[in-house]
Each structure stands twice: as C-alpha cells, then as structure tokens.
Structure of DUF5776 domain-containing protein:
Amino acid sequence: MIYLSTDTHRGLKHLFKIALLSATFFTFGATAVATTASADDTSGVPAVYNGKNPQRDMVTNVSSDGQTQPQQYFTSWFSLAGQDSNYTGPTTGSNPNSILNLDDYTKDPSSLYEHLLIKNDSNKPMKFSIDLCLPQFWRGKPTVNTNWPVYGSDKIATPTAGSTTQGLDVKYSSFTKYYIPQENVTAADLQDLGKISVGGTLQSQEHYQLDVPLKLIDPENIELDDLLNGAKFNSVTINNQSNGYYVDHVRFARGVNAYKQLGINGTNKYVVTYRTNDKPAKYYHAADIQNLMPVIKPDDTVVNDFGGYDPKNNDFPYIYTGGGNFFLNYQTIKDINGNNLVQTFQNNGYAAPYNDKLGTIFPYYAWSYMNKINDSGSTSEGDWGNMDGISNYGMQIVKVIDVNGINDQDQLFLNPGAKWNPMDNVKIWNPQQTYQELLPNAKPTVTSTRPLNADGTLNTNQTGSFDITYNYPFTYTNGNKVTFKKTIHVIVGNNSGGGTTTTPSDTTGSSSSSTTTGSSSSTSSSSSSTPTTTTKPSTSVGPNIAVKGEAVYATKKIGLYKSTNFTKSKRIAWYPKQKRVNRPMFVVTGYKRAANGALRYKVRDVNHGRKTAGKKGYITASRKYVVPVYYASVPKSKKITVISRKGINTYKSANLTGKAKHYKKGVRLTVKKLVKHNLTTRYQLSNGHFVTANKKLVIAGNY
C-alpha cells in the first residue's frame, strides 16, 4: 500500500510510508516485514533466488599462451540450504545477481558455502591459475564487515570427492598475509580469510571442486537495506592468465510470498489513501471510494527484486527485502464496476499523483522493500488493511475537493433552519502533487437538486434529503483538461443514519476526510454501500462516542447481536464481566439506532485466540458498559503501572518501532505526555521512549 502508517496491526503484515521521488517514478513506500507473519507467508519462497533466468554458464578459460580452449571451464557460486546461486558471469562485465534468504540461513547456518569448480573437458592438459575471492576480500578496510559472510571453519576446506589434487598448488590469503601454502595456514589466518588461489595442470576430463564453508557473525543485525554501504557482496573468480574478473552479486534478504504478504486472495481489494504535507506526513484512508476499488489481481503487479521496472522479467510472487522494487500498473486497472480507475478518482474529488519531472501523472506506483521489523503486539489498532475485504496493498491518491462536515457516507446532517453555505465549507487542493497542497484562490462550481437560497446557502426549511455536487475544472501543465467532481448527500432533520447534526452556528470548521460510496461512472451518477473504516472524528454521532476504527472494550457483561434489536433470538454471544486485562475488545465499524432510538455500535470482535474472534454484530454504545481501550489523557500523578502479565516493550518512536526496553508486570513508569497515533494513543515517558496507552496493558497511577 502506498501510504501510510507505521503502526502494525497483528493481521497487517506490511505497512508503507513515502520514501523518495525519482526522475522516472515515485517510490511510494517501503515495506516492513512483521515478525507476526505466519509460516504461510514464506511458503514456496526459495532459499536462493536467481531471477527468472538463472545463470548456469561457466566461464571459458584462456590458457597461458593466450589461446582460447572452449572445452575448459571454471566458475564459482554460493549455496544455501542445498540451493545454488547464479554462476559467476561467463564474460567480464556480465554480473548476475542472486538473493540468499536470511530466514533459511537462520534455520541452518551450516548450509552456507561458496564453491569453486574448474573442469578440463578437452583432450589435452590444461594449465590454469584461478583465485576464488571470498566476500571479505572486497571490504577495503582491516575490520570485518559484519554484513558479509566470513570463513566458517577453523580448518582448511578440502576438495570434493573425485577432485584431482595431484600437481595442484593451493594457497590462502588473509587481509594481512598473502599466498600462504595451505599446509601453513593457521586458525587465525582462516578467521580473516580473503581468497583461495589454485594453480597447476588438469589432465583431460579432470576437475577440481572446492566447497568453502561460510558463516555470518551477527545474522540478527545485518543491514539488509543498506546496499550503498556494503550489504551486497560478491562471489568473484579471477583468471590470473588473462586478468579476467568474473562476478556474481549476492545479498541476504528476507523473502515473502506476495499472495500472502499483500493479501491477494481473489476477494481482497486495494486499500486507497491520501496524505498531507505535514512533517512527518499524515495519511488518511480515502474510505469514500474504498468500495469502488478493484479486487487485486496478480497480473497487475510487477516485482523486480534486482532493480528498476522490467515487466519482461517479473519476479512475482517472490518479494525480498532490500534493493528491489515492485510496481502497480494502476492506469490499466478498472474499478470494481469496470470503469477507468483514474476517471473514478476524478469523479469522486481525487486525482492520481502527479510527477512534475515527467509532466504527467505517474505511469505506475513503485514500492521498495525494507527490513525494519515493526511488531507492536497490538490487536486493536485502527489500521485499514486486512479488514473486511481490504488488503494491505493499495494506492495513494491526492484529495482535491475537500468538503467540511460530511460523514463516512458523504452525508451532511443538518437541523431544520441550519445555515450552511457549500462554498464556505470546501477547500481545493492542488491536483499536480503527491500530497495535499492548498490552492487558496481556487473555487469550484456548485449545483443542487434542491434550489439554493439567494445568499447561496442551503435551503433547510424542509426536512428531507437532496444532493450537492461540486465541480472543479483544471488544466494540467501538459495541457490535459479534467473536471474533478464531488457529490454529497444532505439530510435535513433526520439523524438516524448516524451522522453529525449541524446546528445553525455550525457554519465553519476544519476539513475532514470523507468516506462515502462515490461515483465510478464517467458521468455524475453515484452508487451506495457502507464503507468500513475512517480516520477522523467526523464519524462520531455525539460526545463520548467512539469513532469508526476505534477500539472499545466492555467493562460489564454485554451481548453481541445480529441486529439492533437486542433479543435472545438475535444474540450471537455473551461476554461476561472480566478482569481488566481480559476484557473483551471490539473495533467500531459503524453505527445504527434501535427502534427506541438507542445508539448501537456495529463492531468486529478482535479478541484473538477466542472462539468469537472475527464475529460481527451490534453492541450497546452506552458508556456504562463500553469505553475506549486507549487512554485519552495523562494521569494527574504522571505515573502508569504495567499490568500485562507478559510485560510491555518501550520503543524509540511513537509508531512503536525500534524496541528500546522491556518492562515486567508491576513496573511503574513516569509519563511526559500523551501522543496520538491514528486512532490509538501512546505515552511518551520521561526518558523520551514511547509505550502503548492500551488500558489492558497499563493502568494510570501507582499500583
């Protein structure tokens, strides 16, 4: 997904945030491989990946007299868990790339090798002098590069069975000692080994193979993303007779299966978001058009684990961290109704992101992968992916028409007689951007299915509903002319749908995200459905009511029901009163009133590990029974106590990344301030670190 947030939901395996802008495409995100990913996420992912066309050609040797001998070959390669990397290139300058899966190394560290093979397939003797350069040979400084493998044994490597050794001279070179005869090599030399040199003569049909054991010094702390500073290493063979260098570029990475990791299951839709230009950027779910997003198809994605956009060499479905990209060809995708997706954006007040260097909208979305592990352990975050048919893979768009006061369904609820001017409650943001940049002098046109008052305000003297449509014509710098549209639904005197009723004094306010059904046709028609999530409190129906996407828990015995009619026949489950750390928890996904006017929360059960997990229905919205899971203020004492049986972690960032320290149950912590993050909160401690403000994990005061 291109967006977004760095707070990990247990079911949300990947989150993305804006990374960089290049001359040809925009890198919209960098993925984070969560430690909570299931074993299925790596199903079928190779221990060694060599691209779609593995290199298996050996290098043609050149004899000492300068004559090519085509049937005489050599090469080198790596292996892990019994799988081979690409061979070193058959010609100088032809450098294949391979990836070693760090997870497979962790499972079996003894399975990592670098190999050298020299063959004489001719009918006459072959003289040769070959250097096998190990990864540390190229580090360029005396100290070991811990991102690269080192020699993995305290003994010299022995040739494989069937190898010819008679008449061959084998020497070892460390970083400080060169060409040590193998019989004189010490354990200290092996610890700093850089290359192994083999020379001599192979008779017809003889071969020599050496399997060199390797190991990682600190596999848990490899900088998988830092390719510029040496996370990529090489297998290199040097032909000393022709001074030819033959290379295979290799890096460690973590691999995942795109189907599982991106939520591609045949039913999930792309998630759609937009962002602000704040520092740091804030991201919001464009839930008003979420229902129009198409189902994810594998053919829409191009994965290039070794570099830039190359649809002819698509590495899908294998995604590896560090050094690669994957691309979404969104301009060729249709919305859920079969209409052009870019046109659907425009018909609902959004634009596709614009590339000022290309002078047009981006041809495709691009993401990079990174290895920042992010696992807050939370089960109730208000993230948008992996919920109700929405994947964690999507598109970032630009909000252009921003109407104040509307709710999740693009509805505006007004009391009879309320004064509301549509021109005073709209902002226009620059379509030629990747984020929200205000166009202060831009004015849309407004049409209404109910005549406006003479002063331009809405006619709210009669109850009922009608539509307001905003139109904003815009010409891009390349001359392309488009019209952005936005239709909102005004309801006067009826708040049963769960929107915020505006009184006559409510004529201004901050802009909010809108989350309605939207229009997917090339005209101004619209369709209707119920969206699932939002990120702003415009969804509330009154004070002390949780917003959509917020987590609540029950403080007393409550029931979950199929409808707002709370009867025995409609009951799905009972939730008895529990101790604080075990209180049943729900995510609010909507609102509805019962026949007697009582407000109900439409919810999803997020009590993972229990039989009711995932069930959906209605619960009471009464604060006597359910309250928000997260604290909304700092305790007067500025003290909190850890109550989770397993303790809690503190982190260096408010998005709960960069683990700082673990605290056991009963530890008291001093709070500096409360920090909001999406629909959750964190406490910043006196030492600057951050901790969850989840009431099931911490309690205000000293206990």
Summary: The helical segments are 102-107, 187-191, 227-231, 258-261, 341-347. Residues 341-347 form the longest helix (7 residues). The radius of gyration is 31 Å.
